[in-house]
Specification:
about 425 residues, mainly alpha, Growth Hormone, Chain: A, 16 helices, disordered C terminus
């Protein structure tokens, strides 16, 4: 990589600044909720299986609502969908606060996690496709680096604040309340974005058009390779769900330590994302993607084997740094190669990959920890991530040959048809 560029170019757009600030609040609220529900469930059940079920219940809506969420994002103003979805998220957080205060049944906690999953499914499909509507293509990389920076900053502050609130109040109720308040601020900020209706929003759609996002991804071998790499690598390294177990039973650091463990990957990601804002686009992004995911797997192995709190923090820091590069490359690739009229549907399918890897990865981590113990579950997952890198490189060697992402177009990607048919006349 060579010399630096204008690190703040994307932030000169006022709508981008508002979106970035809103993302800070929204992600912080979600992270506070995640660390709070994980701590409460482990305190009440003492079960790694109970932690794994969190991911399973949040994943279920992703699998069932992906197609409706993607089509909604391509038919209605994406800003409005985000507002509706995050309002639902805030009410779910308040419901969890009420359950925690009343010491309600664990089954009800899982029911509200399903509601959280519904909100996240619709919000993700819409929010991730707003940026290309308000920014020129050549600024996508810089904007995504800032979006990643904001995400990671929130992921640092959120878990740390969540752990502090739990320790200060002695329970989970206040943590859920703070999470709900953060989402309200997010909603207020999103109200300031313009209302933009996607092209062709008034037309009816055929069944084929409902599934056009899936068809587009199947044709794009580069995009499919990147999503597959992310899905399986993160699935096998789904250790965040086991953080309460590591904090309490292996590292013996309590809720404050849990907050820092959850924050450590985000510190690494934030630092790397800030560094990327000052770099020109990667010349061989496919190679970089494979290398960084392999590094992610190695760092995961280190965390699984560590019995030192500080070594564990360092390994988690490295997982975040490697993941930041992967996130920016994958997000930019999606935005560059996808026509705007398909972005909602493509983003929704992409979120299935992301949701599957993150949420089912949590379930996988809990299940394997129950069967083989937490150390073997995490270390073995890191080995699995490295094997996935080798498999993706062998199956899709074209990933190694792509040039700078901003130079790509759908009809210039190897093995892609010159014309991508987004819709047919009704």
């Amino acid at each position: 990589m060579s010399s630096s560029i204008d690190a703040f170019s994307a932030l000169r757009n006022p709508h981008v600044r508002r979106l970035v600030t809103a993302r800070l609040c929204g992600v912080a609220g979600a992270q506070i909720l995640n660390v709070t529900v994980g701590w409460e469930l482990y305190e009440r059940t003492g079960s790694a299986w109970a932690l794994g079920l969190v991911g399973l219940f949040e994943l279920a809506p992703v699998l069932f609502l992906t197609i409706p969420a993607g089509n909604a994002a391509d038919r209605y103003p994406r800003r409005n969908i985000v507002i509706w979805a995050q309002t639902l998220f805030a009410f779910a957080a308040l419901g969890l606060a009420a359950l925690s205060y009343a010491h309600g049944p664990v089954a009800a906690i899982y029911a509200l996690l399903v509601v959280v999953g519904i909100a996240r499914t619709f919000s993700q499909s819409a929010s991730s496709t707003i940026l290309p509507q308000i920014l020129p293509k050549h600024e996508f990389v810089n904007a995504n680096a800032w979006m990643s920076t904001t995400f990671q900053l929130a992921s640092v502050l959120g878990p740390a604040l969540g752990g502090f609130v739990i320790a200060w109040t002695g329970g989970a109720t206040a943590g859920y309340g703070v999470a709900a308040a953060a989402e309200v601020v997010f909603i207020i900020l999103i109200f300031g974005l313009p209302v933009i209706r996607p092209a062709g929003h008034e037309q009816k759609r055929t069944t084929a058009e409902l599934f056009a996002g899936l068809a587009f991804i199947r044709r794009s071998k580069i995009f499919l390779a990147a999503l597959t790499l992310d899905m399986f690598a993160v699935l096998f390294s789904g250790g965040l769900a086991l953080m309460p177990l590591f904090a309490k039973d292996i590292l013996h650091v309590g809720p404050e330590g849990l907050g820092w463990l959850r924050a450590a990957p985000s510190v690494g990601s934030m630092g790397m994302a800030l560094f990327q804002t000052r770099l020109k686009p990667w010349q061989r992004p496919g190679r970089v993607l494979l290398i960084t995911v392999a590094g992610f797997g190695l760092a995961t192995i280190g965390f699984g084997l560590s019995e030192s709190f500080y070594l564990s923090l360092f390994c988690l820091f490295l997982t975040g740094a490697f993941d930041s590069i992967s996130v920016v490359i994958r997000a930019t690739l999606e935005q560059v190669v996808t026509p705007d009229e398909l972005r909602g549907r493509v983003s929704a399918i992409g979120y299935v990959f992301i949701g599957f890897s993150n949420e089912f990865g949590s379930f996988w981590g809990g299940a394997t920890a129950t069967l083989f113990g937490p150390v073997l579950a995490i270390a073995g997952g890191g080995v699995g991530s490295i094997l996935v890198v080798a498999a993706v490189a062998a199956i899709w060697p074209v990933l190694l040959r792509i040039g700078p992402l901003h130079t790509l177009k759908p009809d210039e990607i190897p093995d892609m048809p010159a014309q991508i048919e987004a819709r047919k006349p009704v």
